[in-house]
Each structure stands twice: as C-alpha cells, then as structure tokens.
C-alpha cells in the first residue's frame, strides 16, 4: 500500500507538469484528491485490512503523500497562471520589441553663444547681472547723457508703454543702475533682451539680445578696452580673427568706437559675405562719459572705465555663417538641429 502511495505521488507529479489548462488541472485534482472516489481516498480506505500495529505508521505516510501531491498541484496552478498572464500581455504589448531611444534636444546657438560670452567674462572675474526689460526714460536715456529733446532718442525707435515707461533699447541703462549699487571698482557683464521699433527683415529684429561689458576703476584706459575686446573676439571666433576700432559717436562714451572683426570667410580681403569690406560690424564701445559716471555717483576725476554693447544674434550669425536673423527665432527643427 505504501508503494501505491509512492506511485500516485509520482504519477501526479508527472501529469501536473505536463498539463496545459485549468480544466485539465481541475479534473485531475478531483480524480486524485476528491473526497468520494478520489484515488487517494481509495488507497486510504484499505487501511482497515492492515494489521493494527501498522495502521498508525501508514496514516502518517498517507498524510505526507497528500502534502506532496498538493504541492504538485499548487506549482502547476502557479505555472498556468503565469502562462495565462504572459499570453494576455502578448495580445497588447510585444515585450520583446526593441525600444526606441529618446530623441535628444540640442542647445540653441543663441544660448550657446551667450554661454560662451558668459564663460569668457567669468574667467576674467566679471560679475553677471541682469536688469529690467521694462525701463524708465531716465535710465535708458537721461542717465546715459541723452537729454529729452536730443535727436538720438528718435534714432533709437523706442517702444513706449502707456505708463510712460519703455522697453529698453539697449543694455546700457544697467551701467548706471549697477554703479549706483556698487562702489568702484566694478566689472560686470549684462546680457539680455532689448527692443527697437524696427521692421523685421534679414538683418533687423524688433527684439534681440545684447550684452554690455563695463569696467570702471582707477587707471582704466582705452588700451584695456582694446585688449579685452580682442581677447573676447578670439575666444568667440577663433585665434586667427583680428579686431578693429573705428571712431564713432555715442552720447554715453567719449571717445567712442565701433568694433569690427575680420571676416572669417575672406580673412579681411573682401568677399560677398562681408559685402567686400573684409570686416564685420560687432557693436559700439568707448570710454564711459564723465556725465554717466557722475549720474552713478562715481567721481570722474578719480575713476575711468570702458563699456561696450554687442549683439548676441550678430555674433551667432557670424560664427555660423548664417545670413538671416529670422532663422534664429522661427524655430524650424531642421534649422535648429543642424548645430548639434
Ligand atoms: N548701447 C549702444 C547700442 O546699443 C552700444 C554701446 C554700449 C556703445 C556701450 C558704447 C558703449 O548701440
């Protein structure tokens, strides 16, 4: 009888491992463990034929068999449940399908140009400060030595707000704001948006980005300006590029100069991309006007300084040989992505 138990255990282990449906499992379970007529019950019914002293041992043996048989059923039930889940999932998802890599963005060339400008100024110990885009007439014009009736106010094509405030036409108003906040010496970079009432075309935008460089202290000269701007241009465009200063006029600097950089295409000999000039205009610069220093509470007898204002779009266009400023803001993916 003990052999019968062993045979049943082995048979159940083999059959439960081979079956494939819950119905097969249920049928087998009833035929083996069913209370009435189940094969285990039948074997156990024979206990009465055993001599008395063997009955207890047989009973214990039968219980062990029952546990083993049940565990065979339990693992078959688990196996069927897993297979069921997997086939349900396969109806909706193909978990073996190769995943697509997420698409990488790229940093816009305007931002990259600004980052390069910032890292250059930082390496020279300059502080980066930001100013308001909605500015007062006082800081945008008066403090910059441009009085109310001065014609250059018109040249600036200003957007005025109903409140009488305006959208700053340059980053220069931060010169006085920053100097009022900090006693000399001062060395700052002011990047930001500026606004002008210009019609949009390949070279003009009504909003663009400038950055103002300003250094004021004892004994600061035009030579410092030339050295700084020359280094900046080489940092931005490459070591072979030259800079040139042309006499110019700004209300807030004296003397004033226009900064040019040698054309990267023809290296100064003149070509189509520089209009035959050999040079590209970068922006304005000069020695801070004594009136401006005085508006900021700096004594012009003790302190001198230089300032310049360059366009970030302009630099990005020149660096990448792009001929239309509108491409920078249209956000065409094909355009933006080519500068990864
Ligand atoms: N603010 C001038 C402009 O926007 C540029 C400039 C800045 C000139 C500082 C001289 C000194 O055109």
Give me some keywords for this one.
340 residues, alpha+beta, BirA Bifunctional Protein, domain 2, 2 domains, 7-stranded mixed beta sheet, two-stranded antiparallel sheet, 13 helices, 44% helix, rod-shaped, binds phenylalanine
How would you summarize this macromolecular structure in one to three sentences?
The chain has 340 residues and is of the alpha+beta class. Helices cover 44% and strands 19% of the residues. The protein has helices at 2-18, 22-33, 39-45, 52-92, 109-123, 137-140, 152-155, 173-181, 222-237, 290-295, 312-320, 327-330, 333-337, and strands at 127-128, 134-135, 166-167, 186-195, 207-217, 243-250, 253-262, 279-288, 304-311.
Structure, explained:
By secondary structure, the protein is α+β, with helices and mostly antiparallel strands. The chain is 44% helix and 19% strand. The protein folds into two domains: 2-90, no CATH class; 109-339, Bira Bifunctional Protein, Domain 2 (BirA Bifunctional Protein, domain 2). The strands form two sheets. Strands 1-4-5-9-8-7-6 form a seven-stranded mixed beta sheet, with helices on both faces. A two-stranded antiparallel sheet has the order 2-3. Strand 6 and strand 7 (253-262) form a beta hairpin. The longest helix has 41 residues, at 52-92. The model has no long low-confidence stretch (mean pLDDT 92). The structure holds phenylalanine. Phenylalanine binds next to strand 8 and strand 9.
SSE topology:
Layout: H1 2-18, H2 22-33, H3 39-45, H4 52-92, H5 109-123, E1 127-128, E2 134-135, H6 137-140, H7 152-155, E3 166-167, H8 173-181, E4 186-195, E5 207-217, H9 222-237, E6 243-250, E7 253-262, E8 279-288, H10 290-295, E9 304-311, H11 312-320, H12 327-330, H13 333-337
Helix pairs in contact: 1-4, 2-4, 5-11
The structure holds phenylalanine (PHE).
